[in-house]
Design brief:
With 313 residues, the chain is of the alpha/beta class. The protein is 41% helix and 17% strand.
């Protein structure tokens, strides 16, 4: 039954055991939701597990640091692996029935270098894909395998990794995979910084400056909502602002929210999204902000309220 508390998830390490485990649920016609993660779990992951629980009878989380989505100079070796703490968090949250924790050979039986890969079209080479060649092919390749092993009805992903979400949706549609993709909102610290496993790479001083990334996106979004259509200038100003604060911006871009195509200037603001990636010290931070109707309305209401508040004696 959706919503029931599950005190301790079953931990499975092999693809065969995982397949066997879901078979009984399938026979009894229970819906299954999958929440893929790379571990080092935080409130963002837990929020997706809660969403999954509301969407299906059974929830499977996976913890797998996927080698094929990391470039040679990236942080695969140092990526935080905190399995015991992750399992404790999931047990306390009571939202997950099973945790699939495979090793590389379970996911890539022929080895990661010799693996059959999903090759994604052009969008995979833009935005984050421009500076991370092969990253989204690696993401698509692992998600495809996890879908084949767990056979979920619902796949739950975070809006935090918006390009990943759009690319996985495209793969699911293009390969005819029978799964519904559901997305959950970005969980943030109180100062606006999107929670991320990679935030731990920040020094204290960098952590203090990190919320500027979200603030820069908010400024671009507010300007567009106020009618500024010069996206190029807005993007440039935001990148300059980040650079001045010590970030090394990778990109700040306004795109169409539906498919991440470049806007042609005729889209209404609520069909747009602002995305950014920037390095701060040893961390590469990404964030995005959709300009959906409610966001825009809320932003105006908040702005008005703030103006009112500061005008008070
Ligand atoms: P990761 O472990 O970083 O691969 O992320 C696993 C899933 O959690 C992905 O679908 C991410 O988009 C999602 N996620 C990561 N950070 C957050 C966050 N702060 N809020 C909501 N979802 C998140």
């Amino acid at each position: 039954m959706p919503g029931a508390f599950v005190p301790k998830p079953v931990v499975l390490h092999t693809a065969d055991r995982m397949r066997e485990f879901v078979r009984d649920w399938r026979v009894s016609q229970q819906g299954i939701a999958l929440v893929p993660t790379m571990g080092n779990l935080h409130e963002g992951h837990l929020s997706l597990a809660r969403l999954a629980r509301a969407e299906a009878d059974r929830v499977v989380a996976t913890i797998f640091v996927n080698p094929t989505q990391f470039g040679a100079s990236e942080d695969f070796a140092s990526y935080p692996r905190t399995l015991d703490a992750d399992l404790e968090l999931l047990a306390a949250a009571g939202t997950v029935d099973a945790v699939f924790v495979p090793d590389d050979r379970e996911i890539y039986p022929y080895g990661a270098r010799e693996a059959v890969r999903v090759s994604m079209p052009a969008l995979s080479r833009e935005l984050c894909g421009a500076s991370r060649p092969g990253h989204f092919d690696g993401v698509a390749s692992v998600v495809c395998r996890l879908l084949n092993i767990v056979t979920p009805d619902v796949l739950v992903l975070g809006l935090k990794d918006y390009q990943q979400l759009i690319i996985v949706k495209r793969m699911v549609a293009d390969l005819g995979i029978g799964v519904r993709v559901v997305s959950g909102p970005t969980m943030r610290d109180t100062d606006g910084l999107a929670i991320s496993s990679r935030n731990r790479y920040l020094t204290d001083d960098e952590r203090d400056r990190a919320p500027l990334l979200h603030a820069a996106l908010e400024r671009v979004a507010a300007a567009i909502c106020d009618g500024d259509g010069n996206f190029g200038a807005l993007q440039q100003a935001a990148a300059d602002e980040l650079r001045a604060a010590g970030f090394v911006p990778d990109y700040v871009e306004v795109r169409c929210a539906a498919d991440l195509a470049k806007p042609n200037g005729r889209q209404p603001p609520d069909e747009l999204i602002v995305l950014a990636a920037a390095r701060l010290g040893n961390a590469r931070l990404i964030d995005n902000l959709g300009l959906s109707a409610t966001d825009a309305a809320n932003r105006h209401a908040t702005d008005a309220a703030n103006r009112g508040a500061t005008a008070k004696p």
